[in-house]
Design a protein that fits this description.
The chain is 33% helix and 21% strand. The chain is of the alpha/beta class. A hairpin with a 2-residue loop joins strand 15 and strand 16. Helix 1 crosses helix 2, helix 2 packs across helix 3 and helix 11 packs across helix 12.
Length: 474
Amino acid sequence: MFGTKSRFNNLNKAVLPLEQQRNRPKSTAVVETTSVVPIVEPPRVPAERPKAYYDRKKEVFSMLIEAINVAHLSVMEPSEARNEVRSIVGDILTARKSAISTTEQEELVEDICNDVLGYGPLEPLLARDDIADIMVNGNKRIFIEVGGKMIETDIRFRDNTQLLNICQRIVSQVGRRVDESSPICDARLPDGSRVNVIASPLSIDGPTLTIRRFKKDKLTLDQLVGFGAITPEGAEILKIIGRVRCNVIISGGTGSGKTTLLNCLTAFVDKSERIITCEDSAELQLQQPHVVRLETRPPNIEGVGEITMRELVKNCLRMRPERIIVGEVRGPEAFDLLQAMNTGHDGSMGTLHANSPREALGRIESMITMGGFALPSLTIRQMAVSSIDVIVQAARLRDGSRRITHITEVLGLEGDVPILQDIFVYELQGEDAQGNIIGRHRSTGVGRPAFWERARYFGEEERLAAALDAAEVA
């Protein structure tokens, strides 16, 4: 019809996504970053495209599917496939003698390429590295977070059906589904970015899609120092904590940088150690050679086949792990993680949602109790304080910046009250004229933390003493 159908007339007609073949650089750090990135674009007033645009696009898209077998594109390089689609769409527009400007035609061609080969209207946002979160509230409201600030974009989906199709394309890549019978789904993009979808009938105004982005460059503790998240002395102590196999819980609120910090700490794990990670959606980016990554599985359409986090953590103990890392502790798997920490798997780590180190211990107790374990509260607390060595608290401040607010040791129980000892704390001092938080990290003057002997065993006591002395001077 347009000189293109003959090239593909021996292939089955199917529209297959090319996400897996993309050459987009691999992101290696979670977007829970501590940097405050300047906003690169001001908030814009949403401007909807006219109905005629979507009618033209729908017509051209239908003609494209008739003229080309998109399944064949899956064996092409991404750039080659995009050029092929652009060429054919250009031929279609020429044949239709569409009375549109060159700019409008280019916009239409790019839009159709994104629909066929990627994630539709989300493609321009996914191409940017300064966006921390993408929040789609139905087809007409798309927000992004840049530099800790929320901005509404002028990007729109054609309708909720197109939005749901993109959501289904994303979750199907990791063997999951989202529809009316299973309206909630956690998934991930090929670059590791975290995805949550909630669809009708639970989401009343259309599907809701939330994407927590990964940065292309993996953050390090030294970079966190540059961002002001922690002092150099505090970062040195965290490096030692990761090196000497302390059992660590990273606590914080949503978006506070917990996963970023967990990735940073794992960088100091010895390369000879066998590490097993357990996550709901695999997003940790460990660099060691001996890593086994496990991921939970939701039930199938018949409601069977679910693999829970607790089952993964329990199975880890049969896999000869040296360290177990749980991406997020949110249920009865807390009991199994404490058991692992207490039975020879020193250096295990996990994150959880809590607003302070003491509250983190309370959360662990609550999760174990709600998991149906018939244990006295005192027994659970004894297990927790004997298993956890250090709690690192992260926080997202009201100006959008992230700070490590506490490095706290867990020492034991006094009666039935856990004894905690802060090594480092962050003190708020006010804010400047632009509304940015002013504060400082300070050492509490602890001469010898409880993990001193552990540091000596690993030959790190001199380095630890130097970091503590430097912290007191600072």
